[in-house]
Amino acid sequence: MDRADGQRPRLIVGVTGASAPQLAIHLLTTLRKLGTVETRLVMSRAAHRTIELETGLRPAEVAELCDVSHPRGDIAADIASGSCLTLGMAVVPCSMKTLAAIAHGYSDDLLTRAADVCLKERRRLVLATRETPLSLVHLRNMVAVTEAGAVVLPPVPAYYHRPASLDDLLAHVTGKILDQFGIGHESFPRWQGPRKPPTPQLSEDSYEQQ
């Protein structure tokens, strides 16, 4: 997984103003604990406000979870260029505004530019789109980014692992995102098939009947 220069591979994490910045916080916290990749963070202007409203944290506190935090207006940052090697980018959560910008190549800040770079360089771009219900415009934009090579990964909760807490649900979404980049983790128990019922024990009467 290491780059040719011996450094850890880079993963870009974009955070937009969609509801549920907890998704990004859990992802960044998990990546920090794993320590296998270098994280690059870009937060939109709206993300700053949503983080404050929904988590009570300051954006600076979230930035402390990554290795490098880039100002959204720094279009000269290295991740704005395809020559900067990365595993790709995860936009978590991804607002419908950001989805629309990526779908139509409207790169007006570093977050959307970094996403555009991933598409043009054929690198993995994962969009954890967060909205419900979805309009026809939203769906068409999802089709457009998928055709361009992105992966639309709505943070839909799963229940086969029998989650007992909100953290269990967040961990599942984090794990699904990490899977897209081939990053090893143990965020959630994987489906192993239905549980086998216990083998019935034959009584002495059963043997006699046979």
From TrEMBL:
A Pfam family this chain is assigned to: Flavoprotein
Family: Belongs to the UbiX/PAD1 family.
Lineage per the UniProt record: Bacteria, Bacillati, Actinomycetota, Actinomycetes, Kitasatosporales
Gene source species: Streptomyces coryli
Domain Flavoprotein: 10-180
Swiss-Prot/TrEMBL keywords: Flavoprotein, FMN, Prenyltransferase, Transferase
Catalytic function, reaction form: dimethylallyl phosphate + FMNH2 = prenylated FMNH2 + phosphate
This protein's record includes keyword Heme: no
TM regions (residue ranges): none
Residues at which FMN binds: 17-19, 44, 95-98, 130
The protein, known as: Flavin prenyltransferase UbiX
EC number in record: 2.5.1.129
Residues noted as binding dimethylallyl phosphate in the record, renumbered to the chain: 160, 176
